[in-house]
Amino acid sequence: MANTEFNLNYKNKLEIDTTGNTSLDDIDSATWAPVAVGIQTITPSASETADTTPYWTGEGFSDHDVTGKAVQFAIAGHRVDGDEAQDYVAERFTDVGDSLRTLARWTDPAGKQLVFVATLVSVVPFGGAANVKQTFSFTLAANGKPKKIEDVTPSNPDETGGE
């Protein structure tokens, strides 16, 4: 029987390039900042485009083919001033266009890594009641096909910046 375990979400590592590179050719010159300090939830999603076609051989039932995806990561937590990743995102609250694009990197608990060009969408740099910690949220929307990086050592979740 295979050894199985439940992985905790914090073992996933999400990072953004705070130098604003926008090409997968610039991965080696990126300055990676973990999206971790003050973050409570990260929810990935993949909106899919699908072709649904009923064939005669299906006897009235359809065949589904996924023909495209739009991958996003919804990120939310508390605003922590001075955190490199949060400061980079919050500074772009009123920006439009290419200044909202940067590189992003996701490493799963097994060390599998995807790097992609991303757009910072729906940035919320603060919010909430007067007597509570400021909220912070944004969506990291992948642009185009991500690049798989092979032979990555699994990340140490204790190096995420804590909190």
Q: Could you explain how this protein is built, in words?
A:
- 4% of the residues lie in helices and 46% in strands.
- The model has no long low-confidence stretch (mean pLDDT 93).
- It contains 1 helix and 7 strands.
- It is globular, with a radius of gyration of 18 Å.
- By secondary structure, the protein is mainly beta.
- It has one helix at residues 84-90; strands at residues 13-17, 32-34, 39-54, 62-78, 101-107, 113-124, 135-149.
- Strands 2-1-5-6-7-4-3 form a 7-stranded antiparallel sheet, with helices on one face.
- The protein starts with 12 loop residues before the first strand and ends in a 14-residue tail after the last strand.
- The protein has a single domain (9-153), classed as Factor Xa Inhibitor (Irregular), CATH 4.10.410.
- This is Minor capsid protein.
- It comes from Weissella jogaejeotgali.
